[in-house]
Design brief:
RCK_C; single chain; 4-stranded antiparallel β-sheet; membrane; 22 helices; potassium transport; transmembrane helix; 610 residues; potassium; 6-stranded parallel β-sheet; 10 strands; alpha/beta
């Protein structure tokens, strides 16, 4: 009977997963929202079609294995070499941020809900995890800036590990009354086991894949076997250390240059979707309405305080002195959903607490599930709107050619806050770009698959900047004919002036560095002040901004509080252009050209386009 029930569960999960993915594409919302709803509806509380409790101890094993693979996959998408600029902020989030969240969540649940202090501490430890199971689908769908998305993903991967160890520690303190020395040894031992096993797995697998000649199918099988083996051995040596081992294992594989990395990502992506569906549906089906109702409005109050007070407090405190601006910090503060790790561990702890005759186990489950449901729904439904409101969804720009011109251009776009990907065939140039924190795809830009891998299908602009005119022309043609780019979305560098007409004949905006340099020098001789605006250099910008802020439309330029180091040059309205002066009244959809030193031009852009 049990084997038949397991097959029934597997079939039900597959069907509900397909339905959830279809609804996700239809309504353009994260699939986890629909998985959560399906699990609750199919569970004992509504239709009674699915009862995970019948699985017994098998449920814990299933959830543990799924979480291990999901955390490994999260780490696999992290390349430490390309995110050095954000490591400081992430490390603070998983240390300072975790401590702030733990202390505040413990106090709020104890003071507001009135649960025992020991249970409140367990709850505080559980909700420190933001969870890659929810964050990764959200940031990939919302497409926020690379810096923000990688911060959230890396925080989620590492936070899961920190949450598991901290929650296990607090639980052991509650049920076993550990002393001060035992607490320190508990943390240190499990952290060391996780770090060592994860590092060992990453080192051995990356070395083997770099040297062995095996089929793609064997690579997938070997990697999955390695993940399970490292997790099992780590858990055997130190309970609750396996998640940290998976995070480290995944990050090492994501950072290494193994030849089969893309194969692994595609395989793990499919596998993770199945496992996400399985655990979210099973855990949602375990929800008991009486546990939620027992917490009531007081529990909802705690959750909203966690979202709108504790999370921003931990983010802003952790990111003092980092490169993130206020809007980026606000978006990171909003995206703090709790996922499967708190829900699964809370259920496991509740069962143990009830067996030990401790009070508060059901309140713990109810409060954790309430936190998961509200944070997942809020994040899933509102993240895109919050990102648009805060202006953290940048343009996607694909640059072909990572030489001197492409590198400088990419750095300027990154500084402006745009999402940039560079396609480059030279290993040396790729390494140089990655050291600057720029995303790079190594390969031949004339290959359509390489362009797809670099994200040309989501790009708003394509810039062909290689030193080979044939390559630049072909890339522009592919962008126009294969991917439907318009003339104003493609820009090309022409190295040989004689080839300019070939680009112009195809209506491709192109410029010759030699001709442009000669024109600038010509105008600077005898007229040094006319082109002084071109000397803004690395210290400033010349930007075109569309007026979309209703508070600006209808006002004259002199009424605006513009930075001293900025200057409005021209206003384009339809087919007309006006020299900017103080009395000119700006209208909605005007395109304004502004020059500014430092961040002054960006400040004006934020004002006009808010």
């Amino acid at each position: 009977m049990e084997s038949i029930y397991l097959l029934q569960i597997a079939l039900a999960v597959l069907v509900m997963s397909l339905l959830a993915q279809s609804l996700s594409r239809l309504f353009k919302m994260p699939v986890l929202i629909f998985l959560l709803a399906e699990g609750i509806i199919a569970g004992p509380e509504i239709l009674g079609l699915l009862d995970p409790s019948l699985l017994g101890e098998g449920l814990t094993a299933i959830v543990s294995l799924c979480v291990a693979v999901i955390v490994f996959d999260g780490g696999l998408h992290i390349d430490v070499k390309s995110i050095r600029a954000i490591q400081k902020g992430v490390l603070r989030l998983v240390t300072i941020g975790v401590i702030i969240t733990f202390v505040c969540a413990t106090f709020l649940s104890y003071a507001i809900v009135g649960i025992p202090l020991e249970i409140a501490a367990v709850f505080g430890a559980l909700v420190t995890a933001t969870g890659p199971t929810v964050i990764t689908p959200v940031v990939r769908q919302v497409r926020v800036s690379h810096k923000v998305s990688k911060t959230l993903e890396l925080e989620g991967v590492l936070n899961d590990a920190a949450c598991v160890i901290l929650a296990a520690l607090v639980f052991e303190v509650v049920v076993s009354q550990l002393s001060g020395f035992e607490v320190a040894s508990f943390i240190l031992y499990r952290a060391l086991i996780g770090l060592l096993m994860g590092s060992l797995g990453g080192f051995l697998l990356s070395k083997f894949l770099s040297k062995a000649v095996i089929s793609e199918q064997m690579v997938k099988f070997l990697t999955l076997t390695s993940v399970i083996a490292i997790f099992v051995v780590s858990e055997s040596l130190g309970a609750e250390s396996g998640i940290l081992a998976m995070a480290v294992f995944g990050i090492i594989m994501g950072t290494s240059d193994v030849p089969y990395k893309n194969v692994l990502k595609e395989f793990k992506g499919d596998l993770v979707m199945m496992m996400l569906s399985l655990i979210f549906i099973l855990l949602a089906a375990m929800l008991r309405f009486e546990d939620i109702f027992r917490i009531g409005l007081l529990g909802i109050t705690v959750v909203f305080l966690l979202m709108f007070f504790v999370r921003p407090l931990s983010v802003f405190a952790s990111m003092v002195g980092t490169a993130f601006n206020t809007k980026e910090k606000l978006f990171i503060s909003f995206v703090g959903p709790r996922g499967v790790v708190p829900a699964s561990i809370a259920t496991y702890f509740a069962i143990k607490l009830n067996g030990l005759n401790f009070e508060g186990g059901q309140e713990l489950v109810g409060l954790v599930f309430l936190t998961v449901i509200i944070t997942v729904l809020m994040t899933g439904f509102l993240s895109k709107y919050v990102a648009k409101f805060l202006g953290v969804i940048p343009m996607e720009i694909l640059i072909v050619g990572g030489g001197e011109v492409g590198r400088i251009l990419a750095e300027r776009f990154e500084k402006r806050g745009e999402n940039v990907v560079v396609v480059e065939s030279s290993d040396e140039h790729c390494q140089r770009l990655m050291k600057s924190g720029i995303r790079v795809v190594h390969g031949d830009a004339e290959d359509v698959n390489v362009l797809k891998k670099a994200g040309i299908e989501n790009a708003k602009y394509v810039v062909a900047s290689t030193d080979q005119d044939n390559t630049n022309l072909l890339v522009c043609q592919i962008a126009k004919t294969k991917f439907g780019f318009k003339e104003d979305q493609i820009v090309a560098r022409v190295n040989n002036m004689e080839n300019l007409h070939a680009f112009w004949d195809l209506e491709i905006r192109a410029m010759s560095p030699a001709m442009s340099t000669a024109l600038f020098l010509d105008n600077m001789v005898g007229r040094p002040h006319m082109f002084s605006m071109c000397e803004v250099g690395e210290g400033g910008d010349i930007l075109e901004i569309k007026v979309t802020n209703p508070k600006v439309a209808g006002k004259s330029i002199k009424e605006l509080s513009l930075p001293e180091d900025s200057l409005l040059l021209m206003v384009r309205r339809g087919n007309q252009s006006f020299i900017a002066n103080g009395n000119l009244v700006l209208e909605f959809d005007d395109v304004v050209t502004v020059i500014g030193e430092g961040d002054a031009a960006k400040v004006v852009a934020d004002l006009l386009g808010r």
